Amino acid sequence: MSFAQALKALALNAIGERVRAITGSTASLDDFTKPKGDAGLFGPDSVAWQVHANFTAMMVGGLSSLIVQSLHPRALAAVWDHSDFRHKLKERLGRTAYFVAATTYGSEALALSAIGRVNTIHANIRGTDLQGRPYVANEPELIRWVHLVEVTSFLAAYQHLAKQPLSPQACDQYIAEMSQVGHLLGAVNLPLTYAATQAELLGFADALSFDARAEEILQLIQAYPVDVLDKPWMALILKCAFDVMPLWVLALMGQAPACAVQKQATRLAVQLSAEPVQWMLNQQGVSAIARQRVQGGGQHA
Question: pTM for this structure?
Fold first, then answer.
């Protein structure tokens, strides 16, 4: 190995360690190496593969999604009463990241297995929210809310941060592709275009509340646990998470939107800081490994 190759390997490993420390990921990339030729649910030519390969946009969209999802009292009650989310935020994010990776880049069997595990867990979660209204975690309406927030948050973050945002047609294709996962999780008749998805989200407004529980979730996410060296980057990610939220959601939470200059400054700082991470992931991240599998390439080293 030449000095340049050794230096590159060292840099790749160092960046990989930082990514794992920030996300709480403990998954093995070996899960994504087989069977060869298996394109999974979407395949390399899908918009989902393109969007979900952008690590920083997924971090921004993921945190934005968690905050917005907490505004639905019955959906939040299911998480509040039946998970350790408030005490193990990073681990929860890691599990969510693995689910997205498995359903996007895994083989068809891996994707369906991940979805099956979630459905099994949801089937046993039920209770009442603070107002005494019943909830069941696999209720199609709650699955619908969680799904719509997640896909629109990922897409909004990608459009905000990508050097080449998607065309309107590609945005619609992403929404249509991701509806497959939503339907397998139990949602019914999901919208298939970006405009329809935005309209349906707004239709949930009367059911939402920025109550004490939602406020605590926001505070937990704002205090996301990272090493001292990663705190400045994480602060940028959180600012960006608010920048990609719909204005009506910010208003519901009593949050003033950032001015255009501040929003642009945050965007540029996030884009710049993302370069080394994305460089590493483009070479040895989950999307790169999955692409090798589909093309019949070698095993992950």
Answer: 0.91
Residue 200 within a domain: yes
Asked whether 43 and 294 are in contact (CB, 8 A), the reply is yes
What confidence tier does 39 reach under pLDDT thresholds 50, 70, 90?
very high
Q: Which helix (H) or strand (E) holds 136?
A: strand 134-136
Domain count, the chain: 1
Write the CB contacts of 7 (distance below 8 Å, at least 6 apart in sequence).
none
Give dist(CA 172, CA 194) in Å, integer: 5
Give the residue numbers spanning the domain of 282: 41-294
Q: Which of 76, 75, 73, 63 is nearest to 208 (CA)?
A: 73
For the record, the structure tokens of 283 come out as 């070479």
3-state secondary structure of 134: strand
Residue 229 DSSP code = G
- Residue 20, domain member (yes or no): no
Domain assignment present for residue 104? The answer is yes
- Asked if 243 and 263 touch (Cβ cutoff 8 Å), the reply is yes
Query: How many Cβ atoms are within 10 Å of 7's Cβ, its own excluded?
Result: 11
Per residue in 51-79, pLDDT tens?
999 999 999 999 999 999 999 999 999 98
The angle at the Cα of 251, spanning 247 to 254, to the nearest 5 degrees, equals 140
